[in-house]
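Standup notes
- DV: blocked on the single-chain target, sequence here:
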Amino acid sequence: MKSRTTLSKSETRKISLILLYLAIVFGIVIGSILFSVSESKFVSSEFVMQYISPFELKGSLLDFFGYSVLSYSLFVISFFILGFCTFGQIMSVILIVFRGIGIGVSVSSMYALMGKKAILAVLLLAVPKLVATSVIFVVASRESLKLANKLYSYAFKALCDDEMKKYIRLYCIKFIVLLFFLLLTAAADGALNYFFVDLCY
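- DV (later): unblocked, structure below
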């Protein structure tokens, strides 16, 4: 009996998801270290912190929702576009690591500001949205990587036109579904931040 030397599609899918989640964890570690050792204002900028910390946000319920939608949609749209780029594979991984950096910096800033009191804020206002968005972004990143690989195969005539058209159509549908879940997450995130942020002080 011959031993199997290639991975099945399900095994490949699981491994790719694990690696992307590890990329987020790697980014979190980098972000935490950057916050502790760097005095640069850029590290604490909105660009790096990605509107994750509720203590950095002010305004109405609609404003809080807008912050979440802006941050989340930029990531998902970026992943979508990168799927059509020849350099999309590398950039998708860099983007998922950057998300982790934002998490690391933001959570570290919450503890620096609130001390032990930040535990409630992190558990109530940060963890739920970070788990939900991490799943969405990892799936978006994986789909982006898959399309980039398909386009590479298509360029060398490994796929026919009809196969490529069907895959791109499915790719678009998947991202529409991801955007729908993103909006739900943003709505929940905005509501939690608006109604409960004052309880964490």
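- Follow-up: The mean pLDDT is 87.
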